[in-house]
Design brief:
- By secondary structure, the protein is mainly alpha-helical.
- 83% of the residues lie in helices and 0% in strands.
- The protein has seven helices and no strands.
Amino acid sequence: MNWKNWRHYIIHISLILLILFFILIFLSIYSIFISSSAPVISSYNSITGDWKSWILFISFLGFFISIYYFLDYFNKIKKFKKLINSDSKSKFISNLKDLELISYSLGPKYRDQLEKKKKEWKVQ
């Protein structure tokens, strides 16, 4: 599977990773700073050993990267809808390059919408 196919699932992947990294952050902070007497935390400590601090650091990094991709996806959709629903043909044509880039990164559903709008405005 190449990147072109993965792009369709970026929102799902980023959401799953966001939840996973949040759980790892919670477990790491709880095991490092608060307590290690809970059964879940003691098993987490036995699995991770002395790597808790590194897991916390990597989890924070992954959490923020996942948030970026999650929010970027919705920002692209918002921008795409704003640009594609322009009232004039000249605005549509001036924003066509941006629309093509955004639709390419969002997937075939948005490319089809752009092609439909191009046919509506009779632009090629």
